[in-house]
Amino acid sequence: MKKLSSLLIACSLVLAGAALAQQPVEQQSPANGKRAPEKARAPQAQPRPNAAKPETSAPKQRGGTKEHGATNEPGAMKEHGATHEHGAMNEPGAGKGQKTPAHQESATTPGTNVSGKPAGAETPTASQQRIEERKKGMKGPAAAKTTTSPAAAPAGAGAATSGAAAGKQNAQANAGAKAKKPDPQQVQQIKSQHANFRAQPKPQQVPAVTFNQSRRIEGSESWQGPQYEVFRSYHPERHDQGWYRSHYNRVELIGGGYYFWNNGYWYPAWGYEPSAEYYAYDGPIYVGHRAEPPDKVIADVQAVLQEMGYYKGEVDGLLGPLTREALTAYQGDNGLTTTAAIDQPTLDSLGMG
């Protein structure tokens, strides 16, 4: 029994020693088994000679291009998206907040990028994006400068303003030229030329007006001032020769019709001679207190207005439509009441009063 016990103890010790002797081998075996897969992945992690390097080389690759096959080993830059990143990136181990400006060139050897490809051998998408970004960077300021140029708008506005001002000045100059009074010497010369003027009836060129007892001069009710009273109160009357002779000391045949003179005005003498009733105008004609014949005064006014560019017709001594239009234009330009007639303010303005 003692021998059997001693044998069992000896076997137990032998087994224990064998077990202790095998324990280091088993601990190394798992370690070797762990490194084997790493060696197997190494070829996949570095498909090209210049693949991304460990954390020690990360600062040199800041802002550089990155290839799709780069490994995600510790210290390597993380890839953002499927295409190469040109924007700023924070790298593991680098200080926080450090960014690389867009379009910064790679820190690798000239002519190559990080992936080992020649410069410019990026994917078409990345190259196109870079070109478009550079174009936008170049066009942006130019377009802004063009659209917001401080000199262009004021210059155009100044040109438009100066053009409008010039047009206004020209209009004022023209109005001033029309509004100026005629030369007194010219007026006297015209009056001397018409000293013996006598008007002739021209019913075909200047139609005659007809008698209308209820007629009133249109618009005369709004003409203010005593110088327009005769126009406001005028209405045609028909009388025989005896009546006119008894009321007025001067009745004359002028331009195909009889007129009577009263206090500076000539009026049509309707009924004085029924066979001589050609009147181009039915109303008072102011000539002043010298009682000049109305046809002569009309001819003087026509000639002066013709010289000033208002009257385009013939100097015929008849107060027809063209003469009344010229009078209206002159009166309007000179701030006078537009009577379309020869009244005292108009004759005084022309220097013939």
Describe this structure in words.
The protein is built from 9 helices and 4 strands, in the order ααααααββββααα. With 353 residues, it is mainly alpha-helical. Strands 1-2-3-4 form a 4-stranded antiparallel sheet, with no helix packed on it. The chain has a domain at 182-349. The termini are far apart. A hairpin with a 2-residue loop joins β2 (257-262) and β3 (265-268). Mean pLDDT is 72; it is low at 25-47, 49-123 and 139-162. Helices cover 43% and strands 5% of the residues. The radius of gyration is 58 Å and the shape is rod-shaped.
At a glance:
This protein is mainly alpha-helical and 353 residues long. The chain has helices at residues 2-45, 124-147, 152-179, 184-193, 229-233, 241-247, 294-307, 321-333, 344-349, and strands spanning 251-254, 257-262, 265-268, 285-286.
